[in-house]
Amino acid sequence: MWRDFQIPAHTRQLSSSLRSLPVVPKRQQTKQEHDCGEAEPFKHKTTVPKPFQMTLRESERRRRGIKTRAEVEIENRELRRQLEELTECQKKFRASPVPAHVYLPQYAELQEQQRRMRLQETHNLRTVPKPFSFLERERLKKEQKEQVCPPTDHEKFRPFKAKPVPKSVYAAGSEEHIKEELLYRSIKIHMRAEELLHSAATPPSMIAQRLSERKRTKEASTTARDEGFPHRPRINREVPDFEARYRCFQEHLKKHKELKHTTICEPFELRTSQISSRRERVLTDMGREQSSPREQRCLCSSLSGSLELLPTKVTSATKKRHEAVRYSNMHEKQRQRERKLQRVVSQRAHANDPHLALSQTHQRKLKEFR
After folding, report:
1. What 3-state class would DSSP assign to 175?
2. Is residue 105 one of the residues assigned to a domain?
3. Per-residue model confidence (pLDDT) at position 204
4. Are 95 and 41 contacting, i.e. CB atoms less than 8 angstroms apart?
5. Residue 60 maps to a domain
6. Cα 228 to the center of its chain, rounded Å
7. Hey, which bits of 89-182 come out as E strands?
8. Are 154 and 148 spatial neighbours (Cβ–Cβ below 8 Å)?
9. How far apart are CA 12 and CA 6, in angstroms?
10. For the CA atoms of the chain, what is the radius of gyration?
11. DSSP class of 149
12. Do 114 and 122 touch, CB atoms closer than 8 A?
């Protein structure tokens, strides 16, 4: 680190100039400073850097050849790697022999096996019967059965033999008994039919059809009675009450009519009687003008005319006053509304709350704590 370290030239010049100065002892220098009473100007000094202890230690270790643990481990790892490389390089390459199964003709055997499988599949497909070949199967079964036990001539041509007639038919009272059973059966059928007839009802479609048929027959009979007119108009013989209907219509209109309240005129308050008449004032002005000199008369007339013609003007102060009054009235109304709402809310809360108010329990609690 400090191998190529050099001090700059200006610092060397400064140091040589300082060396040329006479050396003054410290005590004498302090005395001179006290005598002078004025502080000397600051003098620049060069800072010579010194090496750190760790750098000195490291350089000392390198000089002596002392190595750290990490360096020792790295060197050991490198030596081990070199040894492994040397051992690998010293080994001679020898190829392994070709395995014996490589020389076997496996491809030809595989082809032969596939050919046999194809032949087996075709044979199986030929032997398997086609769908819906049950007739052939039944025929083969029949042939096999005939081969096992061949049928005899008696089994082949077996004649028909009917069952014998029961003995009850040839009995003496069999005919009368059969007749009684038939009669009893007919009576039961008749009674059942009567019950069903009483309980049955015609369907609605048939009822409507019958009513329409009756109506048609009535209309046909009425038309036959007429003097040969094929069509007879329907006459409404009831005369409606038009006055009553008109009254009902008027009442209905009154109920559903939108009523608009008329504007009620308030009486006018004319204050013309309170206005002072101008006649007297005009006469007095005319008399004053006649009595006064001409110049003064012109000036007074001009002033009086200007005063009469001057319009009244609303100032900003009056506007602000009106706004302040309106604002105070509005705030007063709002405060009254808030007080009213607060009163109503407190009453409802007091009605719904089962606990007592603080003002009621305050004195009692104070007594308890005392």
Report:
1. helix
2. no
3. 78
4. no
5. yes
6. 81
7. none
8. no
9. 10
10. 73
11. S
12. no
Rounded distance, CA 305 to CA 286, Å? 14
Tell me if residue 158 falls in helix, strand or coil.
coil
Nearest to 285 by CA among 308, 268, 262, 265: 308
Question: How many CB atoms are closer than 10 A to CB 246?
Answer: 10
- Quick check: is 62 in a domain? yes
**Contact (CB, 8 A) for 307 and 281:** no
pLDDT of residue 117: 94
- Tell which residue, 160, 178, 179, has the closest CA to residue 169: 178
Residue 93 DSSP code: P
pLDDT score recorded for residue 74: 93
Q: What's the confidence (pLDDT) of residue 152?
A: 67
Q: Residue 190: what pLDDT?
A: 92
Interval 70-107: pLDDT, tens = 889 999 999 999 999 998 888 887 888 888 888 888 89
Tell me: the pLDDT tens digits for 8-24? Answer: 555 544 444 445 444 44
Domain limits at 80?
A: 54-84
The answer as to whether 182 is a domain residue is no
Q: Looking only at Cα atoms, what is the longest distance across the chain?
A: 188
Q: Phi first, then psi: what are they for 278, rounded to 5°?
A: -90, -5
Interatomic CA distance for residues 232 and 83, integer angstroms: 139
Q: Among all chains, which residue has been given the structure tokens 């599949």?
A: 121
Eight-class DSSP state of 99: P
Eight-state DSSP code of residue 169? G
**Is residue 46 within 8 Å of 6, Cβ to Cβ?**
no
pLDDT under 50 in the chain at which residues?
Answer: 12-18, 20-27, 31, 299, 302-310
Structural domain count, the chain: 1
Give how far the C-alpha of residue 299 lies from the chain's centroid of Cα atoms, to the nearest Å: 88
300: exposed, middle or buried (Cβ count in 10 Å: 0-12, 13-18, 19+): middle
Instruction: Compute the distance between CA of residue 7 and CA of residue 48 in angstroms, rounded to an integer.
Output: 8
What residues contact residue 48 under an 8 Å CB cut-off, 6+ apart?
A: 7
- CA atoms of 149 and 90, how far apart (whole Å): 93
Q: Contact, 2 vs 51, CB < 8 A? A: yes
CB 317 within 8 A of CB 306: no
- Residue that has been written with the tokens 């140091």 in this structure: 15
| Residues in Cβ contact with 75 at an 8 Å cutoff, skipping those fewer than 6 apart | 67
> What 8-state DSSP symbol labels residue 292?
S
User: How far is CA 63 from each of CA 57, 67, 163, 205, rounded to the nearest angstrom?
Assistant: 10, 11, 141, 133
